[in-house]
């Protein structure tokens, strides 16, 4: 979910649990909305890296992480706008080097009822890379700490 203050979401016409778009000047993502008083009005929040590509990590193409999870990377510019001298700076956190996802200006609006109930953009399932080991689901479950029976 993209967590949105109820006042902000209601002003945009987005119900709790509804599909919505979040858009920046660099791209847009379709996701589900969760109203939350814990989010400052006028801002949005989500967990970092909750989307996974179909096929990655042995993920089934019908898994929630692939169809309901999303990443905001599509909304973030690699560089900040050029300064007066034309110099470009990296749009990354100066401490971690990660993308500067915490200060992206976005607009939000409801998705149309006719749109698919899955996140967008969607990508084709990843292929097994030749020369690497292809682990079966049971092996992955064992190492994820699940009961193997």
Task: Briefly summarize what is shown.
The protein has one domain: Beta Barrel (Barwin-like endoglucanases), CATH 2.40.40.20. The protein is an alpha+beta fold. The chain has three helices and five strands; from the N terminus they run βαβββαβα.
Task: Give a topology summary.
Elements: E1 2-4, H1 6-11, E2 19-24, E3 27-35, E4 44-45, H2 64-67, E5 107-110, H3 137-143
Folded structure, characterized:
The chain contains three helices and five strands; from the N terminus they run βαβββαβα. By secondary structure, it is α+β, with helices and mostly antiparallel strands. It has a single domain (2-80, 87-111, 130-143), classed as Barwin-like endoglucanases (Beta Barrel), CATH 2.40.40.20. The longest helix is centred in the last third of the chain and has 7 residues, at 137-143. The chain is globular, with a radius of gyration of 18 Å. 15% of the residues are buried. It is 11% helix and 16% strand. A five-stranded mixed beta sheet has the order 4-1-3-2-5. It has helices at 6-11, 64-67, 137-143; strands at residues 2-4, 19-24, 27-35, 44-45, 107-110.
């Amino acid at each position: 979910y993209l967590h949105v203050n109820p006042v902000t979401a209601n002003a945009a016409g987005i119900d709790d649990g509804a599909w919505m778009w979040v858009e920046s000047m660099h791209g847009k993502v379709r996701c589900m909305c969760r109203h939350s008083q814990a989010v400052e009005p006028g801002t949005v929040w989500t967990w970092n890296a909750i989307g996974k590509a179909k096929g990655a990590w042995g993920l089934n193409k019908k898994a929630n992480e692939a169809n309901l999870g999303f990443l905001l990377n599509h909304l973030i510019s690699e560089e900040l706008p050029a300064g007066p001298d034309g110099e470009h700076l990296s749009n990354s956190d100066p401490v971690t080097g990660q993308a500067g996802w915490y200060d992206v200006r976005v607009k939000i609006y409801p998705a149309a009822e006719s749109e698919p109930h899955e996140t967008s953009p969607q990508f084709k399932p990843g292929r097994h890379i030749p020369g690497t080991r292809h682990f079966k689901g049971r092996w992955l479950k064992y190492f994820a700490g699940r009961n193997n029976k």
